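Researcher: Structure for this, please.
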Amino acid sequence: MTDYKLDDQIGFVLRRVNQRHLAIFSQLLPELTPTQFAALAKLIEVVEVSQNELGRLIAMDAATIKGVVDRLARRGLLEARRNPNDSRRKLLRASSEGKVLYENVVATALRISEKTMDPLSTGEKVQFLGLLKRLW
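Model: Predicted structure, token format:
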């Protein structure tokens, strides 16, 4: 018999916390999935970037980011243009509709983060995020 207890394992605990966060996210921000919001938020932050670079910036593989970008484009939330330095590649940016949606939901996104970490004190929240960032 080992001392292994599932409830004490980092992967299991992170998955449970992520499930809680996703439930809060879908309840408070049904307009976008978490991956769509991440892509839109990063486009707002960096202004313009290739699809591959966007995927790297938000830790998504090529197949996942392609689907996210396609769905955002179909909704008119981002636009693409040919890269003047490499005509095989496109550069993505948030459309005016995407910028408006982002501005309308960013406060909710902040509330989602706060609600996810509600059980923690202010100091614990800072420490927790700092520790998690050291693991990635």
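Researcher: Any notable elements?
Model: DSSP finds six helices and three strands in the chain. The first helix runs from residue 10 to 28.
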